[in-house]
Amino acid sequence: MNRLELIQALPKAELHVHIEGTFEPELMFAIAQRNEISIPYKSVEEVKQAYNFHNLQSFLDIYYAGANVLIHEQDFYDLAWAYFEKCADDNVVHTEMFFDPQTHTDRGIAFETVINGLQKACDDAKAKLGITSHLIMCFLRHLSEEAAFETLEQALPYKDRIIGVGLDSSEVGHPPSKFECVFAKAREAGFLVVAHAGEEGPAEYVWEALDLLKVNRIDHGVRSEEDPELMQRLIAEKMPLTVCPLSNLKLCVVDDMQQHNIRRLLQQGVHVTVNSDDPSYFGGYMNDNFIAIAEALDLSNEELKQLAINSFEASFISDTEKQKWISLIQALV
Ligand code: ADE
Ligand code: ZN
C-alpha cells in the first residue's frame, strides 16, 4: 500500500474540529437565502477570496460572521450532517466536535435549538454512516468568566449529551487562568475538560491549562516545544496534543509545512494527533491534513499508523472501542 492509499485506509478519530468551522460557503449561501439573511459576499468565489488570513484574529472575525446565518434547528443539523459526510469520505469513524454556544445564544438563539440540531445529526450519523461522536462545548475566552458560568448553567439540563467543555477563541491576552473557577465547576459537574493552549499563546498557557484547568487534552500545543521542561511533562503524562497542520499554516503559526514540528514532537514521544480544526476555512478535512504533513515531512507508513492509533488512544471512547480500532490499524500492511 502506498502512502496515499494508507491514509485513506486508516480508520481515524477526529478530536479537534469546530463544527462552525466546517461551514462550506455553498451551504452558507443556501442557509442565508432560506433565512433571508444578507451576507456581505456576492458569490462563493468572493467568500473564498476573503479567506486570506494572517493570524488567528483575522480568521475569527470572518468565522463568527459566517455563523450568524444559523438560526433554526435544521440549520445546525445541516451543518453537522455535511461534516459527517466528509468524515465518511475520509474514513473518520469517530469524532469529538466542538461547538461554541455563546456565538449563538448571544444572538438570541436558544441553547436547545443548537444542541437539538447537532444531536439529531449525531444520531443519524451513527444510524446511517456508522460514525460515532461526542459533543464538546467551548467557552469563548475573549468573553468573561461570568459569561462562561452562565453558559455552563444553560448546559446542565443537556449534560448527558455533552461529554466535555473546552476553551477557544482569541488566545493571547486570555490565559487559561482566567477560567480556573468555571473549569473547576465543570469538572465537579462531571464534564471532561480540554483547552486550546500554545497555538498563538506561549508555553506558559499550556502549563496553566495543565495545572489550573486540569485538562484531559491540550488543543494545538505546538508551542510547547519552546519549553524543554514542559515537553518532559507532556511526555511523562502522555498528554495528548490535538495538532491541526493546515490550520497552523493558514494562520501563519508556521511559515511552511516543512517547518511544522509534528514529526519532531512524535519522535520525541509526545502524544500528537492530526485534526482539521476549521476545515472549510483552512483548505482541507482530515485526509488533506494527513497528506499535507506526510508529503512535506516525508512521514513513513509506521508514523502515519502511529498518528491514527494516537487519535483513538486520546479519544473519549471506551477502552474496548479503542482496542477494536487500534487492532484494525495494526493489521493494515
Ligand atoms: N475557534 C475556531 N477555531 C479556533 C482556533 N484555531 N483557535 C482558537 N479558537 C478557534
Ligand atoms: Zn481549534
TrEMBL record:
<feature type="domain" description="Adenosine deaminase">
    <location>
        <begin position="11"/>
        <end position="330"/>
    </location>
</feature>
<dbReference type="GO" id="GO:0008270">
    <property type="term" value="F:zinc ion binding"/>
</dbReference>
<dbReference type="GO" id="GO:0000034">
    <property type="term" value="F:adenine deaminase activity"/>
</dbReference>
<dbReference type="InterPro" id="IPR001365">
    <property type="entry name" value="A_deaminase_dom"/>
</dbReference>
<feature type="binding site">
    <location>
        <position position="16"/>
    </location>
    <ligand>
        <name>Zn(2+)</name>
    </ligand>
</feature>
<feature type="binding site">
    <location>
        <position position="277"/>
    </location>
    <ligand>
        <name>Zn(2+)</name>
    </ligand>
</feature>
<keyword id="KW-0479">Metal-binding</keyword>
<keyword id="KW-0862">Zinc</keyword>
<feature type="binding site">
    <location>
        <position position="18"/>
    </location>
    <ligand>
        <name>Zn(2+)</name>
    </ligand>
</feature>
<comment type="similarity">
    <text>Belongs to the metallo-dependent hydrolases superfamily. Adenosine and AMP deaminases family. Adenine deaminase type 2 subfamily.</text>
</comment>
<feature type="site" description="Important for catalytic activity">
    <location>
        <position position="220"/>
    </location>
</feature>
<dbReference type="GO" id="GO:0005829">
    <property type="term" value="C:cytosol"/>
</dbReference>
<dbReference type="GO" id="GO:0006146">
    <property type="term" value="P:adenine catabolic process"/>
</dbReference>
<feature type="active site" description="Proton donor">
    <location>
        <position position="199"/>
    </location>
</feature>
<keyword id="KW-0546">Nucleotide metabolism</keyword>
<comment type="function">
    <text>Catalyzes the hydrolytic deamination of adenine to hypoxanthine. Plays an important role in the purine salvage pathway and in nitrogen catabolism.</text>
</comment>
<dbReference type="Pfam" id="PF00962">
    <property type="entry name" value="A_deaminase"/>
</dbReference>
<feature type="binding site">
    <location>
        <position position="196"/>
    </location>
    <ligand>
        <name>Zn(2+)</name>
    </ligand>
</feature>
<keyword id="KW-0378">Hydrolase</keyword>
<dbReference type="InterPro" id="IPR006330">
    <property type="entry name" value="Ado/ade_deaminase"/>
</dbReference>
<dbReference type="InterPro" id="IPR028892">
    <property type="entry name" value="ADE"/>
</dbReference>
<dbReference type="GO" id="GO:0009117">
    <property type="term" value="P:nucleotide metabolic process"/>
</dbReference>
<dbReference type="GO" id="GO:0043103">
    <property type="term" value="P:hypoxanthine salvage"/>
</dbReference>
<dbReference type="InterPro" id="IPR032466">
    <property type="entry name" value="Metal_Hydrolase"/>
</dbReference>
<feature type="binding site">
    <location>
        <position position="278"/>
    </location>
    <ligand>
        <name>substrate</name>
    </ligand>
</feature>
<protein>
    <recommendedName>
        <fullName>Adenine deaminase</fullName>
        <ecNumber>3.5.4.2</ecNumber>
    </recommendedName>
</protein>
